[in-house]
Specification:
By secondary structure, the chain is an alpha+beta fold. The chain folds into two domains: 264 residues, no CATH class; 92 residues, no CATH class. It is 30% helix and 15% strand. It is built from eleven helices and 17 strands. A hairpin with a 3-residue loop joins strand 8 and strand 9. The longest helix has 25 residues.
Length: 386
């Protein structure tokens, strides 16, 4: 990714002004790489009574089994106090739990200390969530996902302020100003693609007036977005470079390693190859992505806790996810030279945007939009108005 420079490039925080702190679970067990174990955890919780249920729940100051909260927007979780809860687990949903690590979450407001309902209200098939990943090491400075992000500590900046892809989370007047300078009106998704391709470590974004450079940047950024979101057609490496399982993975692999000479990923006696060194070395937020992904699937919860309920054996789905992760990281690494070529000084700087009245942005666009198109169930079955 482009490095830090000292020109007049505007801040990402000004170009995408509405941001939200990441959700805070307060307890680890409502999220996991496997959806079936979440249902088993819920069933175990509800079979317990009194002090046993409270201990399994792992109460905090924000949440106890006696806390009354409303439903998560757009979700079907119960609103009676958890101490009286009955019935099956609400269907888990996909979330981005760590860089490039899609896991599952029980979307029940009673289980989450700080759920950030304003994010749930705008989470739909049109939405793209960007997540700041501050780090002094190599790696992307911004991630993008179609799923609700749980990563901490970076801010979350949705592309749209309302459901249905309505009201882009961009500085008012930015699209029109860029259109005047570029000779054509860009779409909100074009601006996001440019940001993904050019954002710097200090979270400034250089803006160009050169239509040809803009086009190349948007094209590269769209590929970054596609690889990070992985919507629709799945990414593939060419046949001779495509990773395969060369030696069967054990039922419960405990260690992971890498053989650079053989370009092989080693999971105990299991082996996946070829794995490019760029994929193995790929870091985000200062952590090697593949190792962090594996650690999340082999961690052992403390005995007697809900987190200890995990798959007894390594699911086949995890192997498929690992092969895709390797592919994504390898393809992103291949993009780095193309992104480095886009390192440009900001021809459209913050000073120009201020003179044009684009900056500073009004305070209202730094706050969530009002979403009044549906009712949300409040505590104990009451309806909440928002």
């Amino acid at each position: 990714m482009p490095g830090v420079t000292h020109d007049d490039a505007p801040l990402l925080a000004d170009l995408m002004p509405w941001s939200v702190a990441p959700p805070r679970l307060g307890r680890g067990w409502p999220a996991a790489p496997d959806a079936a174990c979440l249902r088993a955890r819920w069933d175990t919780l509800l079979k317990a009574e009194g002090p046993d249920r409270e201990a399994l729940f792992e109460p905090t100051r924000s949440r106890t089994p006696y806390t009354a909260v409303g439903q998560l927007p757009g979700r079907a979780g119960g609103t009676e106090k958890l101490v009286r809860a009955v019935g099956p687990c609400v269907d888990p949903v996909r979330v981005l739990a760590a860089p490039f690590d899609e896991q599952w979450l029980i979307p029940d407001h009673r289980l989450i200390d700080a759920a950030r309902p304003e994010l749930w209200r705008v989470a739909d098939e049109h939405q793209v969530f960007t997540v700041e990943t501050p780090s002094e090491t190599a790696g992307p400075h911004l991630l993008a996902t179609s799923h609700l992000p749980l990563l901490r500590p970076g801010r979350i900046r949705p592309l749209y302020r309302r459901p249905g892809g309505a009201e882009p989370n961009l500085a008012p007047g930015l699209l029109d100003h860029l259109g005047t300078r570029l000779g054509h009106l860009p779409q909100p998704s074009d601006v996001l693609a440019w940001i993904m391709a050019t954002v710097r470590a200090d979270l400034t974004v250089p803006l160009t007036e050169d239509a040809e450079v803009w086009s190349r940047g948007v094209e590269s950024g769209r590929r970054v977005l596609w690889l990070m979101r992985r919507n629709g057609e799945r990414p593939k490496l060419p046949g001779g470079r495509r990773p395969y399982v060369r030696a069967p993975l054990p039922s419960r692999p405990l260690t992971i390693g890498y053989d650079r000479d053989e370009e092989s990923l080693l999971l105990d006696e299991g082996r996946i190859a070829p794995v490019p060194p760029e994929a193995w070395d790929f870091e985000a937020a200062g952590v090697r992505v593949v190792e962090q992904w594996f650690a999340a699937r082999t961690a052992v919860g403390a005995p007697g806790t809900l987190a200890a309920i995990r798959p007894a054996t390594w699911p086949q789905a995890w192997t498929s996810e690992l092969l895709e992760l390797i592919t994504v990281l390898a393809l992103l690494a291949e993009l780095r030279p193309r992104l480095a070529d886009l390192a440009v000084t900001s021809a459209i700087g913050a000073t120009e945007l201020r003179e044009a009245g684009v900056l500073p942005v009004p305070d209202r666009v730094r706050r969530p939009a009002s979403v009044l198109d549906h009712h949300e169930e409040g505590p104990e079955g009451q309806f909440a108005l928002i």
